[in-house]
Amino acid sequence: PAQAVAMIGTGRTTLGILQFAGLGPGSTALVPAAAGGIGTLLVQYAKNAGATVIALAGGPAKTARAAANGADLALDYTTPDWPDTVRAHHPGGATVFFDSVGGATARTALGLLAPGARHLVFGWSGGPLTLTDAERADLTARAITTQNVLGPAMLQRAGGGNPLRLLETRALAEAAAGRLRPALQRYPLADAAAAHRALETRATTGKVVLEPKQP
Question: Which CATH class is domain 21-148?
Answer without folding.
Answer: alpha beta
